[in-house]
């Protein structure tokens, strides 16, 4: 091993691989600590490449033998791979390596989880399985044989043959190595069949451990709905005879789209009313769809290199959002998506980790599966669709699939099909892919003689490595309301392209109230001074459901900020407006529940920092508590009726309608608990017959006090269920009162069931605590130290998950000097560790740069 600093990779340095692969044959003899992998790979010189050096990636592999065209060779081996002289004509490479899946705690490559073998190869895990050009632009058909005495043996593609202790699979569709998968275990399937629009009969299986049998029905149902939806909306049919999904308990991410063999974190497959919440069901539906949709946007058409990641992830997130909107309420889905975008992507874009949707360099690609690549990438596609219209979008996608099927593509290829299909020049639009940072759109207005003018200015702040930014194309959807609440201009899209421009509306009888950025038509921050009365007016009258919610949200944000900075009382205008929404029975209960949710502590800290005020996490927490109690009191007469009215009689259904009612009911329960000492919440907890209600009531008790007995009861009841216990761990760390949070979290890490090598459990406790803003940012620095200690510990066994969790420190530079000093010290302590992973090394470097930016 060398100690040299890991070198970054640059987009501009891309060159094609010197060889094409015609066929891959793999043979696995599975053994926990001595698995043998034999590979037979047909290579041929790539006419499109100049560089003919034969280098195969390979990490942590013991080479047993290697041969070219049947003659043994002795390659030169480094920690990154091997090189070897090769013929100038087509040749067959054969190699046998040994690996130890049972010792693989990084959960990348071939590893073991609960006695079962599984793989995770994206982005660069295949090189831990055998020597190979492990890059997405090398695509090949794979044939796989697995020898193992476990009963279920799976790989990509279609089954060829099987017997006791072996199975053979063939995947005819050329694919990059990151989509390879293998699973072996004692598993049971929940199965169905699907006939595609092209008449293909497909066998569908969701594989789980025997103990989890019976919890895969919803995942299977979601799969069938996804397959149907992709045929109807995108004209994309499935292309193999089987589709397998496997649930594994130890998994770094949510799920993975391996061709014909999706591997899922078990939390996004397993569900029963007693163990899964409404949110879990919603996530399962969405993630099953997401991975299924990758079959076309990712597998059939993949990425040329990892800089193009948003080509598949941004697009597939956009597709899964459309699907969820169709399955549930489009308005509620949009609001939820924007809440996540702001909480994660705006936060990222505004801090030391900011990067463009298509980054220009990276050191460890695993660190770039980010909110920007995913969520902002999806927003960019939403804007594109708005600009070219649904028909233009459909034409562009048809062209994309027709032209690029079987290829590894770039963002340029993607934009090109839009230009050709719609005739639109996207040169300026492309800046969304290259410029980091969230654009600010400043709006002022005047009204004279029936003419209303909006003055619009856009500006994007500097981000690490990017100073001046050029104006971007911003589709601004807007409507105008007359003072009596009528809509005088229905939704219209204005395209901002200049740093400053005006929009003029003539012939108006009175000065209108503008409803700007309807549907959140662009991922920007709108800056406009508006009176609380105007926001309350929009909350009552806006016809755009997103902006109706947004009016209430921004009003709440203003009120809370005044409470923090001026010790103000909660504005009565806000409380009255909220009461009106809650009382409005024609409104979707899910929408009303969202309106009752206050902006989070981190969002408030960000808003304060944006205004040049150093946020005080404790003051923010306290103000939020006061605001909740004020809402509880002001709406006091409404709660019991609402609570009774939102009951869901009959058997549990995870559908949006009942879920919305439960959400509103639990919101009412939460406010009631501030007035009745939690009596109703205790009763609700005791009577709950589904996990949404059980965990909902438990959360209320944790927030308002008196949860101890319920926590014990919950642990006794669910101690055997990993996924349910993750909730128990997570809630306590997230909801602990600021002054107790460090101690509570430390105690959780000493709990016998804190199996910290399991990513879900680690995320529940350490991630949960990091989301407890006032606790994590404890002035003593104890929160920073606690997280840093655990990141160091996890980094040694699982760099990928550890590095992801380091984003807890993303906002450290916005706080006061005392906190900054302590956070910086914690980060420096991590950075100084010997043997730190490349993943974590890159993250702490970038995080520490925040100090230099802020200084
Ligand atoms: N391709 C990813 C999974 C992945 C990410 C593997 C990073 C390796 C490294 C998959 O399609 C994905 O995006 N999964 C998301 C969930 C999805 C619904 C956004 C995940 O795992 O969080
Ligand atoms: Zn994905």
Widest sheet: strand ordering: 6-5-9-3-2-12-15-14
Distance between the termini: 37 Å
Tally of separate helices: 26
Class per helix and strand makeup: alpha+beta
Rg on CA atoms, Å: 27 Å
Bound molecules: ligand BES, zinc ion
The shape is globular
Low-confidence segments, given as residue ranges, are none
- Biggest β-sheet, characterized? 8 strands, mixed
> What portion of residues belong to β-strands?
15-25%
Overall pLDDT, averaged?
A: 97
Please estimate the helix content: 40-55%
Number of strands: 31
Keywords: Aminopeptidase, Hydrolase, Metal-binding, Metalloprotease, Protease, Zinc
Pfam family, one: DUF3458_C
GO molecular function: aminopeptidase activity
EC number: 3.4.11.2
Q: How is this fold's topology laid out?
A:
Blueprint: E1 9-10, E2 19-29, E3 35-45, E4 55-57, E5 62-68, E6 71-72, E7 76-78, E8 81-83, E9 91-99, E10 109-113, E11 116-120, E12 140-147, E13 152-155, E14 158-163, E15 166-175, E16 182-185, E17 188-195, E18 201-208, H1 217-234, E19 242-248, E20 255-256, E21 261-265, H2 278-293, E22 302-303, H3 309-327, H4 330-349, E23 361-362, H5 371-404, E24 408-409, H6 411-422, H7 431-434, E25 440-448, E26 451-459, E27 474-481, E28 487-496, E29 500-505, E30 513-516, E31 525-527, H8 532-541, H9 545-566, H10 572-583, H11 589-595, H12 601-610, H13 617-634, H14 639-645, H15 656-676, H16 679-687, H17 691-704, H18 708-718, H19 722-735, H20 738-749, H21 759-770, H22 773-776, H23 782-795, H24 799-805, H25 817-831, H26 838-854
Parallel strand pairs: 2-12, 18-19, 19-21, 22-24, 25-31
Antiparallel strand pairs: 1-23, 2-3, 3-9, 4-8, 5-6, 5-9, 7-8, 10-11, 11-16, 12-15, 13-16, 14-15, 17-18, 20-21, 25-26, 26-29, 27-28, 27-30
Helix pairs in contact: 1-2, 2-3, 3-4, 3-5, 4-5, 4-9, 5-6, 8-9, 8-10, 9-13, 11-15, 12-13, 13-15, 14-15, 15-17, 16-17, 17-19, 18-19, 19-20, 19-21, 23-24, 23-25, 24-26, 25-26
The protein binds ligand BES and zinc ion.
Pfam families: DUF3458, DUF3458_C, Peptidase_M1, Peptidase_M1_N
GO molecular function: aminopeptidase activity
Domain Peptidase M1 alanyl aminopeptidase C-terminal: 533-848
């Amino acid at each position: 091993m060398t100690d040299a600093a890991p070198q970054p990779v640059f987009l501009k340095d891309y060159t094609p691989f010197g060889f094409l692969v015609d066929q891959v044959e793999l043979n696995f003899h599975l053994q926990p600590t001595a698995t043998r992998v034999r590979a037979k790979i047909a290579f041929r010189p790539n006419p499109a490449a100049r560089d003919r050096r034969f280098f195969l990636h390979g990490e942590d592999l013991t080479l047993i033998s290697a041969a070219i065209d049947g003659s043994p060779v002795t390659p030169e081996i480094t920690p990154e791979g091997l090189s070897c002289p090769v013929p100038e004509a087509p040749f067959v490479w054969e190699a046998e390596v040994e690996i130890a899946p049972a010792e693989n705690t990084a959960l990348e490559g071939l590893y073991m989880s609960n006695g079962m073998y599984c793989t995770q190869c994206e982005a660069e895990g295949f090189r831990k399985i055998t020597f190979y050009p492990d890059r997405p632009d090398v695509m090949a058909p794979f044939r796989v044989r697995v020898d193992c005495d476990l009963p279920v043996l799976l790989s990509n593609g279609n089954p060829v043959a099987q017997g006791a202790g072996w199975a053979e699979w063939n995947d005819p569709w050329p694919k990059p190595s990151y989509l390879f998968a293998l699973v072996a275990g004692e598993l049971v399937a929940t199965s169905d069949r699907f006939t595609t629009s092209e008449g293909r009969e497909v066998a569908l299986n969701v594989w789980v451990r025997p103990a989890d049998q019976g919890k895969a029905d919803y995942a299977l149902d979601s799969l069938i709905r996804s397959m149907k939806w992709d045929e109807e909306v995108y004209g994309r049919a499935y292309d193999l005879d089987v589709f397998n999904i496997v649930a594994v308990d130890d998994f770094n991410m949510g799920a993975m789209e391996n061709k014909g063999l999706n591997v899922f974190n078990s939390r996004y497959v397993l569900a029963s009313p007693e163990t899964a919440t409404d949110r879990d069901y919603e996530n399962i539906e969405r993630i099953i769809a997401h991975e299924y949709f990758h079959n076309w946007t990712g597998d059939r058409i993949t990425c040329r290199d990892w800089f193009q990641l948003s080509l598949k992830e941004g697009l597939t997130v956009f597709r899964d959002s459309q699907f969820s909107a169709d399955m549930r309420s489009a308005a509620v889905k949009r609001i939820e998506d924007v809440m996540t975008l702001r909480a994660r992507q705006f936060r990222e874009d505004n801090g030391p980790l900011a990067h463009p949707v298509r980054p220009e360099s990276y050191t460890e690609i695993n660190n770039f599966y980010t909110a920007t690549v995913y969520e902002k990438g999806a927003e960019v596609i939403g804007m594109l669709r708005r600009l070219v219209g649904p028909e233009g979008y459909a034409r562009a996608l048809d062209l994309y699939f027709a032209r690029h099927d079987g290829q590894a593509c770039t963002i340029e290829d993607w934009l090109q099909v839009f230009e050709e299909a719609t005739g639109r020049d996207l040169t300026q639009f492309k800046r969304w892919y290259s410029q980091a940072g969230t654009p600010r759109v400043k709006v002022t207005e005047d009204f004279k003689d029936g003419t209303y003018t909006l003055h619009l200015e856009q500006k994007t702040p500097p981000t690490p490595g990017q100073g001046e930014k050029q104006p971007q194309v911003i589709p601004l959807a807007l409507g105008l309301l007359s003072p009596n609440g009528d809509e005088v201009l229905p939704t219209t899209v204005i395209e901002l392209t200049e740093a400053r421009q005006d929009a003029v509306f003539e012939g108006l009888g009175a000065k209108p109230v503008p409803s700007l950025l309807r549907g959140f038509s662009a991922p920007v921050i709108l800056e406009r001074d508006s009176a609380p009365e105007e926001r309350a007016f929009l909350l009552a009258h806006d016809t755009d459901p997103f902006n109706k919610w947004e009016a209430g949200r921004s009003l709440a944000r203003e009120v809370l900020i005044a409470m923090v900075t001026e010790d103000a009382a909660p504005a009565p205008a806000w409380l009255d407006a909220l009461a009106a929404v809650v009382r409005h029975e024609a409104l979707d209960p899910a929408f009303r529940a969202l309106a009752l949710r206050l902006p989070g502590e981190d969002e408030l800290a960000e808003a304060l920092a944006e205004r040049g005020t150093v946020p005080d996490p404790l003051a923010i927490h306290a103000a939020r508590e006061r605001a909740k109690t004020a809402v509880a009191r002001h709406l006091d007469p409404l709660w019991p009726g609402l609570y009774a009215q939102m009951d869901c009689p009959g058997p549990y259904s995870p559908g949006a309608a009942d879920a919305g009612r439960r959400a509103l009911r639990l919101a009412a329960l939460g406010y009631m608990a501030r007035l009745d000492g939690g009596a109703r919440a205790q009763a609700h907890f005791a009577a709950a017959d589904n996990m949404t209600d059980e965990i909902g009531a438990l959360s209320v008790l944790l927030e308002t006090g008196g949860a101890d007995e319920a926590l014990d009861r919950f642990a006794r009841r669910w101690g055997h269920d990993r996924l349910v216990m993750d909730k128990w761990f997570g809630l306590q760390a997230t909801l602990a009162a600021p002054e107790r949070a460090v101690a509570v979290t430390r105690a959780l890490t000493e709990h016998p069931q804190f199996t910290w090598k399991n990513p879900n459990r680690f995320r529940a406790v350490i991630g949960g605590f990091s989301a407890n803003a006032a606790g994590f940012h404890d002035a003593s620095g104890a929160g920073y130290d606690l997280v840093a200690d655990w990141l160091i510990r996890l980094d040694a066994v699982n760099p990928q998950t550890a590095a992801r969790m380091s984003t807890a420190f993303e906002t450290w530079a916005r706080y006061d000097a005392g906190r900054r000093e302590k956070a910086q010290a914690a980060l420096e302590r991590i950075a100084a560790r010997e043997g730190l992973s490349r993943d974590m090394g890159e993250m702490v470097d970038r995080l520490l740069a925040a100090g230099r930016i802020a200084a």
